[in-house]
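I'll show a sample.
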Amino acid sequence: MADLRLEREFAVTPEALFAWVSNGAKLLQWWGPEGLHVPADQHDLDFTRLGPWFSVMVNGAGDRYKVSGHVTHVKPPHSVGFTWGWHDDDDRRGPESHVMFIVEPCAKGARLILDHRELGDDEMSQRHEAGWTSSLRKLAAELA
């Protein structure tokens, strides 16, 4: 199983960064790679509570990409964990992986560690690394 770990530092407090990675309204501002957006009625993004979540990301051509899972733990302002599974064109959920957003204080303000495990293989890990890296650029722009 391939795993992915990305780290970014931001000039905000850990509490503020945690809000950006858990609060649905804030998540919507950076969720998904550049060039994709989540329509207002196509998500249940809320990582402030345990339970199911989903989002549908849409590109400029109208292609839709659905992902869903369950929030497995919430420990403000330190971490949130959730399962992750892509849906196919018939809305069947594929293999499940696990994501954790870990927030730590650092000299700059706060560090986000994105830990995505059990991605299956190196190709899947590389695709997720590209997607998460793009999403984190959007988050950095929001926090700049």
